[in-house]
Amino acid sequence: MSTPVILMRTPAETALIERFADEKATLPGAAAAREEAFARFAAKGLPTKRVESYHYSDLRAAMRSLAPRPALTKAEAGRAFSGFTRLSFVNGVFQGEAAPSGITLEPLAEALEAGCITPNAVMGAASDVVVDLNTAFAREGLVLHVAKGVTTPLHLAFIAAGPGAGFSRMIVDVAPGACLTLLETHEGGAEAYQVNAMVEFRLGAGAKVEHLHLNEAGQAAMMLTTLATTLAEEAEFSSLNVALGGAFTRHQVFVTFAGENAKSTIKGASLLSGTQHHDTTLVVDHALALGISRELFKTVVDDAAQGVFQGKIIVRQYAQKTDGQMASNALLLSDEAGMSNKPELEIFADDVVCAHGATCGALDESQLFYLMARGIPKKEAEAMLIEAFLAEALDEVTHEETREVLSGLLSAALRRRVS
Amino acid sequence: MLNIKNLHVEIDGKKILNGLTLSVKAGEVAAIMGPNGSGKSTLSYVVAGKEDYTVTEGEILLNGVNILDMEAHERAVAGLFLAFQYPLEIPGVATMTFLKAAMNAKRKAHGLAELSPGDFIRAVREAGARLGIDPEMLKRPLNVGFSGGEKKRMEILQMSLLDPAFCILDETDSGLDIDALRIVAEGVNALRGPERGMLVITHYQRLLDYIVPDTVHVMAAGRIVKTGGPEIALDLEKNGYADYLGAAA
Q1: Using a CB-CB distance cutoff of 8 angstroms, which residues of chain B are in contact with residue A377?
Q2: Can you spell out the DSSP letters for A107-130?
Q3: Which residues does B213 contact at the CB level (< 8 Å), separation at least 6?
Q4: Which residues are bridge partners to A342 per DSSP?
Q5: Which of A16, A182, A305, A333 could bridge to A276 as Cys pair (CB 3.0-4.6 Å)?
Q6: Average pLDDT, whole number, for chain B?
Q7: Residue of chain B minimizing CA distance to A385
Q8: Distance CA A280, CA A56 (A)
Q9: Looking at beta carbons, which residues of chain A come within 8 Å of B91?
Q10: What is the pTM of this model?
Q11: Minimal CA separation from B101 to chain A, in Å
């Protein structure tokens, strides 16, 4: 057997290997799945830009060292959203709030010990290094069982306190016909912390989930977030990612159509400045027929920030009558700002409607002049046009108050640019 | 009020205005007529402060102040208003949000407090009703999906709300049917006053039947080639621009 050629290990890789050796005996659940996932990482190390799916986001270069284990601490309130039942996680550790009726909580560790949950069952995410590391290390997290009849929207608030590298995994099991609105927020301080947080949704037949993801991570944070969703027949899933924070962010979305007539809408609104790097990597896998998928990503890039969008729609042989449309639009506000768009379609069925489009552009000078000719100062006119550009991504958020909060956060970030 | 002296303007190295001199007094409504390509729209954009043009010579004074060094928004709050020939559609910006931003920008520049929501809505409703603007239109994104007539009415609505000292109307009649033209002209006439100057740019005599000017200037090849009273417009309608094109060459 030949030994794979690997680069000299970085301090981060060495630290991950040491940490796994150190922790594996105490990690909950069957060791085999963890060992297997970790072995995949250890064989290749962190991906460089020579790995296709990390070409625009060199994780090995970005993650030079591993932050220490996060401290066990009680913390800080964090942002609250009115009308939502809040479950909070400080450095990944659940703070023990009560769930609304109809939702049963089970600690991840217990579910793994009982063997009723297998990590890494999500098809599209099977060989991704961020997912593998999460599978190997995840100790904290919950399994949520959502029954039919739940009406209260749920807020999962992830708060990072101090420097630390945390791995958390949430599994949201939504019963057939059940409905759920779930808001996931990430916030933290100025320290250089690292988050690897994964949320898996498993939607039963006819289930409906609206997922909102808000990234307000600290300015030095590395955010590796993964959303993996499996849809049974006639399930409907939507997810919006509003990205403001973090130094290096990779937001991965894997959607698998495992039943017919399912629908998925994935959107994003990102506002990047300074030297932020934000990567959205999306794989929508139509395994079965009659699925509808819509993807719309709006990225605003200022200063020397870099945006990345990689989106792939796969339509497998039996997924006839699939209707997939994907668009990524970027607005570049400075000469140094960059955006890499890579939309892909991989179609094996012969009766489908699929389209993708990607644009990169500057603000429209004529529109800007029109607003200025009415007395509106340039920076403010720019802010109005940027807000208008982003607004489309937010317009289907059903909870009106939350939509206003989210668009308010984007406006506030834009106003800071004006002042 | 507005004094333009020996204005030379080019875009991408191409000369558009060649020593244009024009003066409009407070209370005066001046019309500029001229054939396609004579530089009429360039003149309106240069006065309003569009950045694509290079002024190589000359000056533009508004009430004695040279506005050439000002940015477009500074000229607007100083009292200049350009009603666009082709008002821009701005998807995602609500009409009311835009109107409020424009009105408050001017108030802020003059050291006044922002309008209260009640005062703002009342002002827009009253001015809108006078121009026959459907309140539903105000709920839509700015100019998006508006008909030609609706866009022009929206321009005049902005003009009346911003209460400018000097108005330039660039081909306001283009794209209007006769009823819309009458409504727009009535809106403009209501804003005539001893303190306010207006420059009405048009191809055709038709608009000047409704907005009767005090003076008419004929523009050709980037200059004013003739100035006189409303009778010039009638003459042009009958005989065309041929004589003036010769004069400019």
Answers
A1: 73, 105
A2: EHHHHHHHT---TT--GGGTT-HH
A3: B29, B30, B31, B200, B230, B233
A4: A310
A5: A305
A6: 91
A7: B93
A8: 10
A9: 388
A10: 0.89
A11: 7
8 Å CB contact of A369 and B77: no
CA distance A335 to chain B (A): 19
Whether the pLDDT of residue B205 is over 90: the answer is no
DSSP per-residue letters across A227-239? EEEEE-TT-EEEE
**Smallest CA–CA separation between A354 and chain B, in Å?**
25
Question: How sure is the predictor about A22, in pLDDT bands with cuts at 50, 70 and 90?
Answer: very high
Q: Do B162 and A374 touch (CB under 8 A)?
A: yes
* Rounded Cα–Cα distance for residues A290 and A258 (Å): 11
Q: Are A87 and A177 in contact (CB under 8 A)?
A: no
**Closest Cα of chain A to B57: distance in Å?**
23
- Contact present, B227 and B198 (Cβ < 8 Å): no
Distance (Å, whole) CA A281 – CA A342: 9
- Establish if A418 touches chain B: CB-CB under 8 angstroms: no
- Could you read off the pLDDT of A285-325 as tens digits, one per residue? 999 999 999 999 999 999 999 999 999 999 999 999 999 99
Instruction: Scan residues 253-292 of A and list those with Cβ closer than 8 Å to B.
Output: none
Task: Show residues of chain B in contact with A372, CB under 8 Å.
Answer: 49, 71-73, 76
Contacts of A13-19 with CB under 8 Å at 24 or more apart are A13/A45, A13/A46, A13/A60, A15/A65, A15/A66, A16/A41, A16/A66, A16/A133, A17/A42, A19/A66, A19/A69, A19/A137
d(CA B161, CA A62): 53
Query: Of B168, A366, B95, nearest to B103 (Cα)?
Result: B95
Q: Which of A44-48, A128-132, A258-262, B33-37 has the lowest mean pLDDT?
A: B33-37
The verdict on a CB contact (< 8 Å) between A366 and B88 is: yes
Tell me whether residues B102 and A391 touch, CB distance under 8 A. Answer: no
Residue numbers in A near B50 (CB within 8 A): 369
Identity of the residue in A366, A372, A388 whose CB atom sits nearest the CB atom of B71: A372
Q: How sure is the predictor about B233, in pLDDT bands with cuts at 50, 70 and 90?
A: confident
Dihedral (CA of B46, B50, B56, B58) sign: positive
A375 with B90: Cβ contact below 8 A: no
Cα–Cα–Cα angle for A168, A172, A177, rounded to 5 degrees? 170
User: Where does residue B195 rank: exposed (0-12), middle (13-18), buried (19+ CB within 10 A)?
Assistant: exposed
Contacts of B41 in chain A (CB under 8 A): none
The pLDDT score that the predictor gives to residue A123 is: 45
Mean per-residue pLDDT, B99-124:
95
Task: Report the pLDDT value the prediction gives residue B180, as an integer from 0 to 100.
Answer: 84
Find where tokens 């049917």 sit. B177
Find chain B residues with C-beta within 8 A of A298's C-beta: none
| Per-residue model confidence (pLDDT) at position B174 | 83
- At residue B193, does pLDDT exceed 80? yes
- Residues 346-365 (A) with a CB less than 8 A from some CB of B: 365
Confidence check: pLDDT of A6 > 80? no
Distance CA A265, CA A146 (A): 21
For residue B61, is pLDDT > 80?
A: yes
Is residue A234 within 8 Å of A245, Cβ to Cβ?
no
pLDDT at B206: 85
Exposure string (b/e) for B130-155, b if CB count within 10 Å is 16 or more? ebebeeebbebbbbeebeebbbbbbb
- Residue B58 CA to residue A381 CA, distance in Å, equals 29
Put simply, the answer to whether B90 touches A369 (Cβ < 8 Å) is no
Question: In this predicted complex, what is the ipTM?
Answer: 0.95
